[in-house]
Amino acid sequence: MTATYQVSRLPSGLTLATAAMPDMASVSLGLWVAVGGRYETAQACGASHFIEHMLFKGTRRRTSLEISEAVEGIGGYLNAFTTEENTCVFSKALHDRLPELLDVLADMLLHSTFEPQEVDKERQVIKEEIAMYLDQPAQHVQELLNELMWPDHPLGRPLTGTTRTLKGLGRPQLLDFLHENYTAPNILVCAAGQVTHPQMLRAFRPYASRFRSGEKLKCERASETQAAPAVRLFTKETAQTQIALGLRVCSRHDPRRYPLRLLNALLGENMSSRLFQVVREEHGLAYSIQSSTSLLEDVGALVISAGLEAGNISQVLTLVMRELKRLVDHAPTAAELRRTRDYLIGQLELGLEGTENQMTWVGEQLLGYGHVVPPGEIKRRLTRVTSAQIHAVARDFFRPALMNLAVVSPLKNAERLARLLRM
């Protein structure tokens, strides 16, 4: 499913974008703000996520229920998410309902009231969310890894905040954060589906002047230096040990991101990947094992995650390190490269069939790069990657000095685990 991308920058600095898909019945609309967890001070940790919740709790015109009914009552749905660098409120419905969707989302972003009693109730809800994550070792281990990889930096703090920081986030603090950061130069309005760019410009005209002026935000850079491997053990009686091995890699602006994309897929992204085949299929040591990448403005991480019995952790880490060393020592074969490339291109094309995914694609591209990189260009760049380039990236990043291991387990000592992080 192809889309035609158009972008307009309004005099206020606000960006308006469309991905026209004329054969679709739906339209997906997203209001993006280029602010997330890494823009928060230590005292304001969790503010972006808290605000995301509060946007659903009532405006000057609508109660919380009326917000939901305004979208669900026309056959649509409404949701939101917060990341390290962005916040997005989005909705989807039939294409002729675009004006209603836009009115609801703009109302939420511009006129949410943050009633004190609602703030207090939602603070308790988020505390329950934090408790839920702590009871989920697979989630908890990822937060421990972030703390380990990015110490004394916003990237190392939880997006939800902590029970301590939530106490300091009341209505005045949340509104101060919103007024300072949710300004026109940091806002993107994006629609994908059966919608034209002129149609979107006309629909947005009544709201264009309502967004506050301000400056484009800049985030605190993270340290890119690490001299030795690090291990963080959280001892807890669990039925299954969870491990997350994080390696520092490049930012999303580094040209090595294309061979890195193939390297990650080859290593652990799917059932035919090396880690899945070796750890699960050959040795039966884990139900799930996978790798993923997170490329940010200035830094990045490749993370290998697995759930396993505590008694198998040494064997699994030994196998993981062996596979990393294989990629450092030997370039992938031509057949392996071809299969991995075809997988990624197929996943890209399948992923962009829907209007919601197209809306997310445009939002991430514009906020991450300042322009929409056409999917065809991504496919061409992936096609040009050679085995030698993948080999070079493995040598760059698969080094013990760049490794960080987080573990949630009944284990009480992590000394022997640190010794396993060598190749």
What's a concise summary of this model?
With 423 residues, the chain is of the alpha+beta class.
Question: Could you describe the 3D structure shown?
Answer:
The protein has 423 residues and is α+β, with helices and mostly antiparallel strands. It has 16 helices and 11 strands. The chain has 2 domains: 4-210, Metalloenzyme, LuxS/M16 peptidase-like (Cytochrome Bc1 Complex, Chain A, domain 1); 230-420, Cytochrome Bc1 Complex, Chain A, domain 1 (2-Layer Sandwich). Strand 4 (77-82) and strand 5 form a beta hairpin. The longest helix is centred in the N-terminal third of the chain and has 19 residues, at 116-134. The radius of gyration is 23 Å and the shape is globular.
The CATH superfamily of the largest domain appears as Metalloenzyme, LuxS/M16 peptidase-like
Order of helices and strands: EEEHHEEHHHHHEHEEHHEEHHHHHEH
> Percentage of helical residues?
40-55%
Would you count the extended β strands for me?
Answer: 11
What is the level 1 CATH name of the largest domain?
A: Alpha Beta
- Counted up, domains total 2
Counting DSSP H or I runs of 4 or more residues, the number of helices is: 16
Main structural class = alpha+beta
Please write out the topology.
Blueprint: E1 4-9, E2 15-20, E3 26-33, H1 47-54, H2 64-72, E4 77-82, E5 87-94, H3 98-111, H4 116-134, H5 137-149, H6 163-167, H7 171-181, E6 187-193, H8 197-204, E7 230-235, E8 241-249, H9 257-269, H10 274-282, E9 288-295, E10 300-308, H11 313-329, H12 334-351, H13 355-369, H14 375-384, H15 387-397, E11 403-409, H16 415-420
